[in-house]
Please model this.
Amino acid sequence: MPLRAAGVLIDSFIFVPIGAVMAPFGSSFVATSIEAALLLVYLVPQIAVWGMTVGSRCVGVRVINKTGQPPGWARSVARGATPVVVGLVLYPIAARLARHSTRPVCVVNAGHTVCTTPVWHPSGGAVIGVLLVVVTHLVVVYGPAFLDDQRRTLPDRVAGTLVLYRHLPPA
Model:
């Protein structure tokens, strides 16, 4: 499992510039959906054709179908879309919690009331709520790997894929 995480981390560094381009659009549902679609454009073709991304190749991890071949397009789309769908289902919950975290904070000083709306204020337990949504996403998507002797995550189960851990020859 640590190898998979290392591969994802490497892919994340590759994907950071795309996230930086999307940053000016904020964290709206539309911006988040576009970023998720761009992530799929990065992941799906590599998994479909080679069975590995740049990150997974670096750490010697490969995705295969039941016949031992790269998963192909349909399985790769299903595998890539599963965490995105889970995230999009959980997004409204996180957005609602975050919206409640921007309540005005008012202070009375020398008879004058000054109110500000902070960018992030932990009122109503919003910080804990958003963290709970993130943790729930991680548990739902990746938790099954800890209960499966083949270490299959939810996306692997949905797509019918398996991850092989082996050292690959240098490129």
Notes: The CA atoms of residues 108 and 114 lie 6 Å apart. The mean pLDDT is 79. The beta strands are 61-64, 105-109, 112-116, 162-165. The longest strand covers residues 105-109.
